[in-house]
Design brief:
Number of helices: 7
Distance between the termini: 40 Å
Helix content: 55-70%
Shape: elongated
Radius of gyration: 27 Å
Structural class: mainly alpha
């Protein structure tokens, strides 16, 4: 839907209604995702965007309503992008809740598959490259284990 089509749809929502009912119908229509998506494309401050906002203002749609709808639309887009990333991620998901034993067990299982995690004398360790180019074995701290866990789960 183009911006012109979106504005026409908002205008059509109020046709044949009384003033108050027309404003309500137009506000509802202006908040629909397809209209908001078309208006979000015009949120750049260009001449077309200014003209579209002026035309919507004549129809009783406040600029704050348009801005709020566009913010909502962009938040939805970001949420959907995060969901797509999560679906493409093959790492196990560990939810931390009141079942501490299950949470710890899931974390241990995930860390057990980490090829960069080692055990030495009952301690979890890592191999670190020093500034001199040497490899040194260092114990993991809570922070480094948290980073490794975030990497594998």
């Amino acid at each position: 839907m183009s911006a012109d089509e979106a504005i026409a749809a908002v205008r059509a929502a109020g046709e044949g209604l009384g003033v108050a009912a027309a404003k309500t119908a137009r506000r509802v229509r202006a908040a629909r995702p397809d209209v908001v998506a078309a208006l979000a494309a015009l949120a750049d401050g260009s001449g077309d965007a200014t003209a579209a906002r002026a035309e919507l203002k004549e129809l009783g749609i406040a600029a704050s309503t348009i801005t709020a709808s566009i913010r909502w639309h962009r938040a939805q887009e970001r949420r959907e992008a995060r969901e797509r990333e999560r679906e493409a991620d093959d790492r196990p998901l560990i939810r931390c809740d009141s079942e501490l034993n299950a949470d710890v067990s899931a974390a241990v299982d995930a860390l057990a598959r980490d090829p960069e995690l080692y055990q030495r004398s009952e301690q979890l360790v890592r191999v670190v490259l020093t500034d001199d180019g040497d490899h040194v074995i260092r114990p993991h701290t809570a922070a480094t284990l948290r980073a490794r866990l975030a990497h594998v789960a």
